[in-house]
Fold:
Amino acid sequence: MSTIAIVLILLVALLHLYFLVLEMFLWTKPLGLKIFRLTREVAEQSKVLAANQGLYNGFLAAGLVWAVATQQRNVALFFLGCVVVAGVYGAATVNRRIFFVQALPALLAVAALLV
Structure:
């Protein structure tokens, strides 16, 4: 893996660790409410679902770090592909900005791996 690919993969992993923290621990706090544009009531009602989402984001981050640590290109491509699919789905069903925050960085990392 090139240095650029490693940096981009680790950036995607860090983003997903940040998503984990937001969704598992800050969902009902002022920062989580602001970022996800939620009312306190909606956040309280959905906090268990958000925590579950956060856990999955943590698994994606772990997979990406594992891929870099073991220098396994195919593993990196698999987890980046999962991130891209999740980002495209989120953009189509929730908010288009999800594409730019989640899918685009993963696509850039895929491109760096493939060149």
User: Anything to note?
Assistant: Residues 3-114 form one domain. The chain has one domain: 3-114. The longest helix spans residues 40-70.
